[in-house]
Amino acid sequence: MAAPMARALRGLRAGVGRRWGHEARGGAGRSRLYEHVRDGNSAWPQLDVEALRGRQEEAERELEERKGPLRAHDLREILSTWEQLQSLQERVRGLEAVRNQVTLDVKALTETHDQSTLDSIPTYKELRGRGREIRQQLKDLYQEEQQLYEHYYLKALWLPNQTHPDVPVGDESQAKVLDVVGKKPVFNFKVKGHLELGEHLGIIRQKRLSHISGYRSYYLYGAGALLQHALVTFTLDKLVKRGFIPMTVPDLLRGAVFEGCGMQPDANPSPVYNIDPSRFEDLCLAGTSEVGIAGYFMDHAVELRDLPIRTVCSSTCYRTETNTGKEPWGLYRVHQFTKVEMFGVTAAERGTESTELLQEFVSLQKELFSDLGLHFRVLDMPTQELGLPAYRKHDIEAWMPGRDKYGEISSASNCTDYQSRRLHIMYRDGAGARRHAHTVNGTACAVPRLLIALLESNQLQDGRIRVPPALQPVVGTDIIAPPQAATPVYIGLNQPKRH
User: Fold this and answer.
1) Rounded distance between C-alpha atoms, residue 412 and residue 266, angstroms
2) pLDDT band (50, 70, 90) for residue 19
3) What span, in angstroms and rounded, lies between the C-alpha atoms of 12 and 182?
4) CB 386 within 8 A of CB 163
5) pLDDT for residue 17 is more than 60
6) Cβ neighbours of residue 39 under 8 Å, at least 6 residues apart?
7) In this predicted model, what pLDDT tens digit does every residue of 194-251 receive, in sequence order?
8) CB under 8 Å to 180, separation ≥6 — which residues?
9) Counting CB atoms within 10 angstroms of each CB, which of 38, 63, 289, 320 has the fewest?
10) Tens digit of pLDDT for each residue in 70-93?
11) 265 cis-preceded (ω within 30 degrees of 0)
12) 419 and 260 in contact (C-beta within 8 Å)?
């Protein structure tokens, strides 16, 4: 497919078919990954069309069961477009072969005849005319080819991954509990929420910040900041000792990398912060270091002997999800937060490697949260909660006494070859051939939600907080009490009226 794709790319660079209306997009939306490839920055995504055709009925059913802009009829259209493209390319190859033969015949005549006599040779005139006719036909076919590529990719890139057969069907309410770890903490007093506890101790501030840092921002102060540092240090230390490679990644990445991971920066509403395009062309703030790590491996191949590669990264994450109107106060939904992410690249020789790595990630998550003394449950998430890239996803929900319910603190997903086919994350197998790797990701520590579970589960009747032993070396105490030093007193506008 390299030659036909190169032809399409040449046509695109020449400005053929540069249109982004509803008809061109097929109703699915703009694709920055397509534009990235179109402009010659990376190879074309290698979607497994033959596999889709082989399981078309099953794939159509899965499309109806998962969230996203595409449905069964869209898959039929995608496959039909691909078939049209194959047929057209066969015609193109035939015409190119005729054109090449005509070129050779003309060259033979020019080498055996003087230029002055060529025009009087009927065969020469006929060949020249035939050559012009073929070139015009090819020009039209190349344009049609490019338009088919555009129509195909602008829809096909919105297809979700295949679904694991054991995944429950339906919405969040259909999640299956796989495991329950620990016991709910028992209190002989009325429990407080994390924000009330944090404000009493002077370690969390979320009031009167709209004029400083906007809606749902927050400060961690004193022991609150140390708790964050302790959580990150504890998590990184444990994972690095288990062979994870520590990384730092850019917070700003191109939209193509987001789309390659299965995230849509141009969805409406968008889950991603887009930077002002008039100043920074095509840059977005990452909501997880998964994007940056995947970008590190993009367009690279690793050796089979080096797999699986396990990486861990602590980063600041930026999310627009707080616009939902849910959880207006507290740390459960905030615009930015610190998170430690696990990301793995593995082989697909036996077909079970990524499943095993997902199980390993979940086992590590359970160990981390158990060491922190939390009560939590592991869920097998249903089809509507998988997003585009996940073949299977497990969430972990911790008990949060102040909220009187479980709250998600982490997830782990097996993305099989979904991301690698879009981003060209490859490995060399035993024969030296390049194959698409599988990718797995998992949250090891999402600081704000862990703080909620820890503060609310470890509260004492007087509002103090017990510090889990695993975090005490960094926090420097086993009990967080109200600060001895005076805290700042608000003196700004809108003071409470005093009588």
Assistant:
1) 24
2) very low
3) 58
4) yes
5) no
6) 12, 13
7) 999 999 999 998 887 777 777 788 989 999 999 999 999 999 999 999 999 999 999 9
8) 376, 377, 378
9) 320
10) 999 999 999 999 999 999 999 999
11) no
12) yes
pLDDT class of 352 with cuts at 50, 70, 90: very high
Would you place residue 16 in the very low, low, confident or very high pLDDT band (cuts 50, 70, 90)?
very low
Which residues fall within 8 angstroms of residue 251, CB to CB, at 6 or more apart? 285, 286, 292, 315, 316, 318
User: What type of residue sits at position 156?
Assistant: A
Does the pTM surpass 0.85? The reply is yes
User: Residue 406: beta bridge partners?
Assistant: 399
Report d(CA 456, CA 197) in Å as an integer. Answer: 8
Average pLDDT, the chain: 90
Residue 347 has pLDDT above 70, yes or no: yes
Residue pair 155/70 in contact (Cβ under 8 Å)? The answer is yes
212 residue type, one letter: I
Among candidate residues 101, 330, 78, the one with its CA nearest the CA of residue 194: 330
CA torsion 411-414-417-419 (nearest 10°) is 0
**What is the SS3 string spanning the chain?**
CHHHHHHHHHHHHCCCCCCCCHHHHCCCCCCHHHHHHHCCCCCCCCCCHHHHHHCHHHHHHHHHHCCCCCCHHHHHHHHHHHHHHHHHHHHHHHHHHHHHHHHHHHHHHHHHCCHHHHCCCHHHHHHHHHHHHHHHHHHHHHHHHHHHHHHHHHHHCCCCCCCCCCCCCCCHHHCEEEEEECCCCCCCCCCCCHHHHHHHHCCEECCCCCCCCCCCCCEECCHHHHHHHHHHHHHHHHHHHCCCEEECCCCEECHHHHHHHCCCCCCCCCCCEECCCCCCCCCEECCCHHHHHHHHHCCEEEEHHHCCEEEEEEEEEECCHHHHCCCCCCCCCCCEEEEEEEEEEECCCCCCHHHHHHHHHHHHHHHHHHHCCCCEEEEECCHHHCCCCCCEEEEEEEEECCCCEEEEEEEEEECCCHHHHHHCEEEECCCCCEEECEEEEEEEEEHHHHHHHHHHHCECCCCCEECCHHHHHHHCCCEECCCCCCCCCCCCCCCCCCC
Sequence-distant (≥ 6) Cβ neighbours of residue 458 within 8 angstroms: 185, 373, 465, 466, 467, 468
Residue 267 pLDDT level (bands cut at 50, 70, 90): confident
Q: pLDDT tens across 116-149, in order? A: 787 778 888 888 899 999 999 999 999 999 999 9
Pairing of strands 425-428, 300-303: parallel
Peptide bond into 308 cis (omega under 30): yes
Contact between 368 and 444 (Cβ < 8 Å): yes
Residue type, 242: R
Tell me, what amino acid is at 340?
V
